[in-house]
Amino acid sequence: MTKPIVISNANELVRVKPERVVYFTSDGNYSTMVLYDKSEMFFTMNLAHCQELIEDQLGEDARIFIRIGKQLIVNRSYIFTINPNKQLLILSDKELNQAFNLRASREALKQLKAFLESERKEERI
Length: 125
Prior knowledge:
Layout: E1 5-8, E2 13-16, E3 21-27, E4 30-35, E5 40-43, H1 47-58, E6 65-68, E7 72-75, E8 79-83, E9 88-91, E10 100-103, H2 106-124
Antiparallel strand pairs: 1-2, 3-4, 3-7, 4-5, 6-7, 8-9, 9-10
């Protein structure tokens, strides 16, 4: 059983299973956590702080999340399509009837694609 991610601020505490989180996005000092049911939770913290929380709380299990550029952290198990030319990242899974279409820089998506390809090659060895 995976440990939950706990995010707390002055007004509330949110406790969520990592597999329910599709992605985090950031706009400066504000971050949004988007869950598989498309519900959103807003936090007054930058994405670097979100990343630290995830790594501190999940330890080795934090590998399920991957940082993409300056504004995104995605749950790698939801990555469905990476298209650097269209600057498009589609997140979905076989159980979701919807997809999350996200924009990211061409360079960030190229790096993500190369990283996942190299990771797959290592698994085969």
